[in-house]
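=== How it folds ===
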Amino acid sequence: MTSYVDNCTGDFRLVSFSLAADFQVVFFVAVSLMYSLILLGNVVVVVLVSLAPQLHTPMYYFLSNLSVQDVVYVSAILPKLLAITICRESSIGFSGCMAQMFFFTFCVGTEFLLLTSMAYDRYVAICIPLHYSSIMSRVQCLLLALASWIIGFLTALVHSLMVSFACFSSSRDVNHFYCDLKTVIRLASSDTSHIQTLLYVVCVLLGLFPFLLILTSYVFIITTIIKIRSSSGRVKVFSSCSSHLTVVVLFYGTPLSSYMIPESEHSQEKDKTLSLLYTAVVPLLNPLVYSLRNNDVLMAMKNVNEKYFRFPRWQKK
């Protein structure tokens, strides 16, 4: 009985990147810097959206939700990667592995749907602006955001529970820098075909299908932009939409290519590199491309500072 329990719930070992000794410190500093900037940038976005009345719009409401889930899922992954890199603490308990898998799956599924809601918001604002206030009401935005979190939560819960009931072989080396769902179930000694089938279905329903919806919305958006007579108006609208589309392509493209392309067509090392892109680079880009380079946000930052903090460098001479 004891050996059976150990076989099903023993510790795992994360096999991270193969780095030369001289490069480990550089990698640790780079990841630490990215993690710090992700936390700072996304917390600033949440605080600004909460305190600045001019940012109480659907776009920034979805953006603040996006920032919250970015903070949650990078905090579930990057600290362990840093520990592996600098301290060689590659062991992770069964419950820790399941928790890491849950939070990552939860947040990624939620982000897929939040990005879709943001694309819908831009579609309504640009293509049918006269009905924007009625369609994107406060209740509608709340329902879209709530649905994104609930669906992401339930999907992650089902996957985590199914994997937690599986038994694993004596080899517990997870060839990844976190407990990636697809990588972990490869180690199972019990039948996991039902988990793999569900994973593929979820990738289609929560990944590929929303991605196609976003692309479709942007076809209509670009068509509308082309019809704008003012060249400055076209540039302004296209600039605000192109940043969202860039993040969408990066975020959707990397996990979908990792999870939906057959194993023989890409290596595990490539998987790890792609995963680092959407677990560190994309969350770092989100606050930059969406808000911190936006004039409205910069003005809100100045107003919030003058009202609540009064840092001297913001004061008018």
